[in-house]
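Wait, can you check?
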Amino acid sequence: MRNLLATTLVFGALAHSVAMADTAKKPEKEVIPPLVEPAAKPPKTPATDYAKQALDFYRVAACGPDRAIPSQFTAAPIDRHCKEVTETYATYKKAWVDKAVPFINELRPKDAPKTVVYPFGGGDLSSALAAFPDATEITTISLESAGDVRVIDTIKQATLTQDLGKVAFLLGYLYKSAHSTTDGLQQGSHSELSSTLAMALSGMVVHGLEPVSLRYFDIQGDGTLRYLSNEELDLRVAEYAATKRGKTPPKVVTHYWYEQDTPFNNVEITFRPRGDAKAAPRTYRHIVANLDDPHLDVDDRVIKHLRLKGKVSVMTKAASFLLWYDDFTKIRNHLLATTAWMISDASGIPPSYAEPAGFEHVTYGEFAGPYFVIDAKGTRHEFVKLWKSQPKRPLAFRFGYPDANKAAHLMVMRPKAASASTK
């Protein structure tokens, strides 16, 4: 099953490349429909906390320790899954986490905000925790839905076993390659057992943390959050099924992918060090949003929500170089207005935008050019020049994409006034 999935992802990546080339020759304009909210009115019931389901999901899919396997499942397939995943974690910690955490700790200013924004991040909580181990709030934004944690109570054993195979494959790819493919994230997020949730919870396992609560939410028109009850989610599930909402992809998609639309888009998980009931809970949120300008023109609630955070720390990696493009101006400008410190690979913000906004870049590793990108404006040359203009600073681990020569690279974007010494 995992070999079949790997083959599917390879062919998916090839199709993706062909689609990019074809679209580059004959661009089509995507028509963004008006925002449609679910018709169901919120019932007068309090928001629901799925803490138990989060802990069961954490144990079964992410292989969190110190918790029994739920009694409705056969233990053997979960034990096999967890043997594989635990070995992946151990290799990842030795090869990446144990190198990245102390290295980035030396780069990150002591006063960097503990509120972190990670656009185009999927459910990659582990990388965010490695870059910002003391973060009190982390927000990832991507096209993939969080998924329904409630399925851990009802999923059939055969489906669970199959979906655990997908989870193991995607975690293996992320933790061995330092990034995920959009193909893999999209496929995994459509499984009954959500890989987005599994990925986030696996980050907690890797870093010695555990979930405390899990709630779903909507972003309101002013950017504030409204948490959802189980009754409201049930109404939405019925409505989506009746109207087949979320089942039909757009006819034209500008950047080759489109955001999921489910009743379970946005999730908040609070977490703490494993076994430390006295520790103050920290917050992780995952938000579904297409961050290109046409979508933000129609629905800018995610930008309004991010503005409420004030100055933030930012990271991005393996972001398909979207911050290079003219139709991601709104999110790029927002980041330039609110970033106190940012770490990224070369899919971060180009110097031609960062420098006029008062930022400078500090480079690490080597960069001879991107290994893939549609780059009509020649932005790659900015980055090649940037790396050549600075002293060569070694980098012992990959952060996101490799460069065209498969070399590791990383850059920090900071205000020009920053006088901290560079490594």
Remarks:
- The CA atoms of residues 365 and 409 lie 4 Å apart.
- The longest strand covers residues 209-219.
